[in-house]
């Protein structure tokens, strides 16, 4: 069937694959995992997690649903489609930490029910707002007495090590993680850690000894490797290891938690109260009129206008920003107020590309969703002036994201722009409102405009 699309990120799992057909999401279950799936479905384990909101829902469908006959496929289930799939290299620190704790809590709960997780991939966690949810039901299987944690190394490299990079060294994980995809290798982060950190019991047990064992095992014979794999770990020790790791992660916080350039923007912006209120009213009116299900908020900052959009009727907002402090505050806002807002890291001049196996495994930003609307408020000048991207290209990129949106143009006379240009030569002769308007009219219809500051900041409501 022409509309049937395999999910490139699921090809590694022989237990089943994910497909999209006519906008709906399906998962196959092969004979390899059929007994485990059937047992956990029958005993109510899956349904309890679904009811608690910790596991994505699923319904069984007939085997002919996907229109093909594939050897070994014994079940097909349908999942609700998520508005947006994000990746751990796009998550701010607080989101990665929340996902790590969620994963450990889920595993601990599963072990109490005689179930374990066969892996520890961070890509199996997604977010609804700021709340994690597990999306791979085939990662669950019945626990076998005495078995070791198969996903220990993977958990450390995909969850723990990126968190330590920020917590111990003050370096955000996003760029490194995106370049590595499978996480930050323990062998790479250990040389960077101060000696006192390496000598802590947590680091010794989860990093140093694990890496030493990994190195020495490369010289072992096949018989010795097999004997090591057969050593038994009491279930109580397994649970104790997960709890110890959870306690460690729960105490981690960003080393560079001081104020960042835009983290305090909601208190330090240059708008007067009446101007800020006018901007909020304009955004609310746009949302009420267009009724978007999914909104991209480019330069979401601390989430002020994402919240306005949600209050006005938007279904889901994915907020993007470059500033780590702003993202932390936005994530906290979403969590505290139970907003359907997911804040993600984005370098707009270098957004997430197609990458992984055959450059298909992890999709680029704009191939993962088609938002109904985009907000780009006090955003375009950071690309046009801060990154030397032609203004027309910036406008075309923003408009190309969604059929309607609001873009804020910031004049050169604006105090923020003046500060940006204070330490460099002004080479931006074409950076004018006339140039911006001409570029916008080449690819969209301007529905409404409104000047919202004394410095001349202007909102443009467009329809593509």
Question: Describe it for me?
Answer:
There is one protein chain. The chain has 464 residues and is of the alpha/beta class. It has three domains: 4-79; 88-250; 265-463, 3-Layer(aba) Sandwich (Rossmann fold), CATH 3.40.50.150. Strand 7 (125-128) and strand 8 (131-134) form a beta hairpin. 38% of the residues are buried. It contains 18 helices and 16 strands. Helices cover 41% and strands 17% of the residues. The two termini are 31 Å apart.
Largest sheet: 7 strands, mixed
Q: What is the domain tally?
A: 3
So what's the overall shape?
Answer: globular
CATH homology superfamily name of the largest domain: Vaccinia Virus protein VP39
Please give the radius of gyration in angstroms. 24 Å
CATH class of the largest domain: Alpha Beta
Going across the major beta sheet, what is the strand order?
Answer: 12-11-10-13-14-16-15
Q: Could you tell me the mean pLDDT?
A: 93
CATH-derived architecture of the largest domain: 3-Layer(aba) Sandwich
Assembly state: single chain
Q: What is the total tally of β strands?
A: 16
Q: Could you say what the CATH topology of the largest domain is called?
A: Rossmann fold
